[in-house]
Amino acid sequence: MLEVHDLHAYGKSHILQRVDMYIDAGEVVSLLGRNGVGRSTTVKAIMGEVPPQGSIKFKDYNIAGLPSYRIARLGLGYVPENRDIFPGLTVRQNLMLGVKDPRRPGKWRLGGHAANVSKLRRARRYRRWCVLER
Q1: Residue 63 in contact with residue 52, Cβ under 8 Å?
Q2: Could you state, in order of their start, the residue ranges of all structural domains in the chain?
Q3: How far apart are CA 114 and CA 66, in angstroms?
């Protein structure tokens, strides 16, 4: 399903060198290591956030160098480890805001999440929250 071969990526230095991995459908994988060894850069390179060198295939489709939005449309996602959440929502509600029906092409929709949006609108610090629907 996801195959990475001879992946290299550069930041301020040559961070990733010759990374190889194969992840089959249904597998759960963790990247482990100390700070600065390239865990985040590996995922960012796969997702198109950092320019990669090497081969990256997802579902037998070459995704190396594609923009992030095109990779996401193929069904591969990235959840960064920062803390950018809506504090007035539950964990489940925060996660559900990112759900998109893969059978419906086009822009992201909030669809049945009107209750979550109304909670956000009530929160004073999110006055500029706006809901775009197709």
Answers
A1: no
A2: 2-73, 83-134
A3: 33
- Per-residue pLDDT tens digits for 18-36: 999 999 988 888 888 898 8
Q: Which DSSP string do the residues of 63-82 spell out, in sequence order?
A: -TT--HHHHHHTT-----SS
Residue with tokens 């990247």, as numbered in its chain: 31
Assigned token pair, 66: 């594609």
35-60 pLDDT tens trace: 888 888 999 999 998 999 999 999 99
CB under 8 Å to 123, separation ≥6 — which residues? Answer: 86, 88
pTM of the predicted protein model: 0.63
CB 120 within 8 A of CB 86: yes
Which DSSP string corresponds to 10-67? Answer: ESSSEEEEEEEEEE-TT--------TTSSHHHHHHHHTTSS-EEEEEEETTEE-TT--
C-alpha span between 3 and 28 (Å, rounded): 14
Helix (H, G, I), strand (E, B) or coil at 7: strand
Q: Is the torsion defined by CA of 121, 123, 128, 129 positive or negative?
A: negative
